[in-house]
Amino acid sequence: MDKNLRREIILDNFQNPFHKKDGTFDGYIKINTNNESCIDNLDIYFKVEGGYIIDAYFNGEACAISTSATSIMLRRLIGKTILEAENLLKNYQNMINEKPYDENLLEDLIVYDEIYLQPNRKNCALLPSKAIERLVKDLKK
């Protein structure tokens, strides 16, 4: 992917994040995620019905990478089943950790495919996916 396009997508999702809202709404499951070594502290909310993620939003404060990754990830997860979400998260985490992954499944999450070149930013990119992974595991029980 072109570096300028990558930067544009990340900055747009940081400056104009998808479904970043203040407050809490009835019927949503809340998960918190934070990075102990920096400012990142996000609350992510999911509304799940019939095994589908029908809505999601987040709030809190985080760096450009964590905020943009959360924004893009929520856009990709809404409308997915729990199993589809689990597969998306697995592929995303594999990409970040330099393991085999399905590039087509990730769509615009592919902007983080070179984040491994900045090891200190990997935790930022993984922050939302690790929290959502915990939620998905709980929902599968």
Which sequence of strands runs across the widest sheet?
A: 1-2-3
* Parts with pLDDT < 50 across at least 5 consecutive residues: none
* Element pattern in H and E: HEEEHHHH
Overall outline: globular
Distance between the termini: 38 Å
Radius of gyration, CA atoms, in whole angstroms? 14 Å
* CATH class bucket: Alpha Beta
Q: Which range does the strand content fall in? A: 15-25%
What average pLDDT do the residues reach? 93
Total strand segments = 3
Quickly give the structural class.
Answer: alpha+beta
Q: How many domains? A: 1
Task: Give the second-level CATH assignment, the architecture.
Answer: Alpha-Beta Complex
Number of helices: 5
CATH topology: Sufe protein. Chain: A
